[in-house]
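User: Can you recover a sequence for this backbone? Please restate the input before giving your answer.

Assistant: Of course. Working from this structure:
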């Protein structure tokens, strides 16, 4: 076989076909270039009403501005449309993606961006009176280069066919009951289907507890019991996550609170070696709190942390004229600096256990398990460092949150940089 014959053979070769609800998606080499096609099922392409639905949809999509919407051109004669040519690009279904690389759900912001982009595009479709109706894993596509989602044909255009059972055969779980039973649909039908898709994305790790009530409401049998729009559902999802995250941070703040005073006074110079420091049972004499007394410097090395904390409290509770605000600000600054330095070092080591190439390339289940272990270790480290301090819980919470966010972004950036370098 010569070179020209080889090219000709390749031009007519078809790659593996992927089944969509209405046909098969595949790539074909034509004139040395890959082109995307959807070849419709015979029972649909022979239906004159179906052909009209395809042509109407092609025209209607001109009003959709989102780049998440795939464009297409009908292929066929005057009386029938047997296929559509889809815009260039390397696309696979979500089902294919998760079968090939299940750990992708744990990488970066894949879950959040996928859901957010689908909500955004669906809301734009609803403004045009269009519903997708079937967010099944083999009916939602992604661009292979960056895993960004794409939608193609929309179910509401096919409602006049009265053949929903044939079109969605095997995908009934992802289609709202009113569509399957009555061939009727509105925006709440997409609320149902998109919620089923979100539940599928979390299948390997389990739906987070804070989202269960949202999915339950969104997939109610009666459309009236669902959210009125996909935006409404998404806002409830974000609110639930925020409440959960706030609760987690508050719990972590309680654990990491009270860390600095002991360390601060341990760093003060000690003129004599002390083998044993007897605990002070009696409260500090109020006479010590005369004007001019500064508990930060004048209690001496024999005072334990309880005495120091009591002295500072009494000092601050006295007449405001006696409080040296400058000294207290200096103490607060030193305390925060010590807390920041100690917690940054500990958190950096702990977070390194999950933000590395080995862990990030692991399957999603193992990655989640490791993440939970790391969270427990962070909490335990915070507990270990929380015995002797005068930092307020609000201050500790603020600093700890900043440190974790900064370290997380830093480590993600380093991984992305390394991944890019390895690719090049």
């Amino acid at each position: 076989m010569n070179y020209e014959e080889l090219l000709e053979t390749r031009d007519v070769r078809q790659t593996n076909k992927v089944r969509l609800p209405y046909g098969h998606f595949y790539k074909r080499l034509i004139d040395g270039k890959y082109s995307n096609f959807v070849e419709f099922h015979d029972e649909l392409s022979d239906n004159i009403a179906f052909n009209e639905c395809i042509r109407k949809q092609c025209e209607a999509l001109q009003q959709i501005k989102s780049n998440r919407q795939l464009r297409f051109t009908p292929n066929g004669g005057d009386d029938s449309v047997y296929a559509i040519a889809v815009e260039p690009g390397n696309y696979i279904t979500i089902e294919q993606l998760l079968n090939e690389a299940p750990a992708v759900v744990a990488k970066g912001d894949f879950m959040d961006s996928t859901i957010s982009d689908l909500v955004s595009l669906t809301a734009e479709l609803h403004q045009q009176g269009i519903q997708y109706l079937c967010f099944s894993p083999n009916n939602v596509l992604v661009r292979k280069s960056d895993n960004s989602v794409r939608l193609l044909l929309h179910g509401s255009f096919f409602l006049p066919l009265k053949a929903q059972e044939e079109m969605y055969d095997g995908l009934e779980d992802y289609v709202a009951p009113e569509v399957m039973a009555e061939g009727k649909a509105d925006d709440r039908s997409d609320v149902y289907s998109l919620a089923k898709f979100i539940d599928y994305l979390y299948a390997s790790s389990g739906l987070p507890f804070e989202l269960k009530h949202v999915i339950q409401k969104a997939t109610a049998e009666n459309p009236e019991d669902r959210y009125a729009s996909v935006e409404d559902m998404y806002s409830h999802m974000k609110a639930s996550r925020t409440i959960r995250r706030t609760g987690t941070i508050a719990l972590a703040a309680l654990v990491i609170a009270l860390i600095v005073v002991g360390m601060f006074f341990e760093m003060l110079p000690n003129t004599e070696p002390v083998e044993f420091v007897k605990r002070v049972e009696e409260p500090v004499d109020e006479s010590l709190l005369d004007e001019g007394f500064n508990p930060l410097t004048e209690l001496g090395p024999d005072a334990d942390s309880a005495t120091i904390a009591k002295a500072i409290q009494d000092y601050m509770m006295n007449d405001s004229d006696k409080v040296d605000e400058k000294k207290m600000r200096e103490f607060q600054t030193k305390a925060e600096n010590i807390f920041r330095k100690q917690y940054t070092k500990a958190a950096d080591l702990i977070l390194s256990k999950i933000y590395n190439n080995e862990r990030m390339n692991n399957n999603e289940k193992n990655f989640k398990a490791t993440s939970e272990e790391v969270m427990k270790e962070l909490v335990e480290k915070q507990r270990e460092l929380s015995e002797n301090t005068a930092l307020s819980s609000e201050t500790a919470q603020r600093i700890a949150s900043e440190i974790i966010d900064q370290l997380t972004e830093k480590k993600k950036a380093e991984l992305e940089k390394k991944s890019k370098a390895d690719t090049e």
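That completes the design. The longest strand covers residues 23-30.
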